[in-house]
Amino acid sequence: MAGAGIHPFHQQWPPAAAAPPPPGAPASAVIPPPPPVPGAPGTAAADEVRTIFITGLPVDVKERELHNLLRWLPGFEASQINFKGDQPMGFALFATAHQAVAAKAALQVRDRFSPWRDLVFDAETKSALHTEMAKKNLFVKRGVGTDANAVDQSKRLRTGGDYTHSPYAPPPFHPPPPAVSMWGTAGYITAPPPYNPYAYPVPPVAMTSPSPVPGPTAYAPVQNTKDNPPCNTLFIGNLGETVVEEELRSLFSVQPGFKQMKVLRQDRNTVCFIEFEDVNAATAVHRTLQGAVIPSSGRGGMRIQYPLPFHF
DNA sequence: AGCACA
């Protein structure tokens, strides 16, 4: 990767938007230093690659679909699809290399309703996106800020960003992109709980009626009392090094409302995500199995949390 | 793994 020193997750998301100048203010006093005009001579690293290369798109993907996926990302300028045989190759240009890196990271995001899945572009074909930095920048006729849809009616339709004329304008990331619904099947999108999620208290360790079958051998106090907004998926942490999927499955699959689970191993650390039918089912298990000690447990029992809104 | 448009 070219952007040495740029950490992909260093991005602010949503990015800190430069405050728009107050209506009556003298422009020169409030306008920040001009943004790097992409590709302009004299601009830092005009040759820097700020294009990402996207594979894993379904063969029948439309330019508009890709555009609608990407248009929310900070700095998005243009995208296009070229076919190598019948393999679609997506390219997307961003205002800066940093934003391209951030977009790459954003496209690797797993959402909290299906954290075990790669970002799936098309649920039908289960095509999982793969994104890398491109080798060369996307060529955009007439630079940025042009209405690409109007100027380019050629067979090679290029889809430009909606706010490229104002690189500092924040993308409409609040509320989150509706594209989320593309990332999972409809069943993952559950209505938000009606109460203030951050006011939700993590219940104390419960000693009562845990799971039916191979229940935990004991309960241990759980350290981390902070939690994320409730949803129908649980995150299980503080698992022992020797834990295996079957052990977890035997415990969780018998819990009411269980739908599916995914065990992720990262080095010594094993974590698990469990999806339930609804928030209530997840909440019940959150309560009853919090701190549960199972045979493989190491130090303390399992820590049950709701997943982060975005789990990388 | 596969990187094109001009």
From TrEMBL:
Biased composition (Pro residues): 17-39
Region (Disordered): 11-43
Gene Ontology MF terms in the entry: RNA binding
Domain spans labelled RRM: 232-299
Pfam families linked: RRM_1
Cellular component per GO, a single term: nucleus
Transmembrane intervals: none
Keywords: Nucleus, RNA-binding
Cited InterPro entries: Nucleotide-bd_a/b_plait_sf (IPR012677), RBD_domain_sf (IPR035979), RRM_dom (IPR000504)
Localization in the cell: Nucleus
Name the record gives this protein: Cell wall integrity protein scw1
Lineage per the UniProt record: Eukaryota, Viridiplantae, Streptophyta, Embryophyta, Tracheophyta
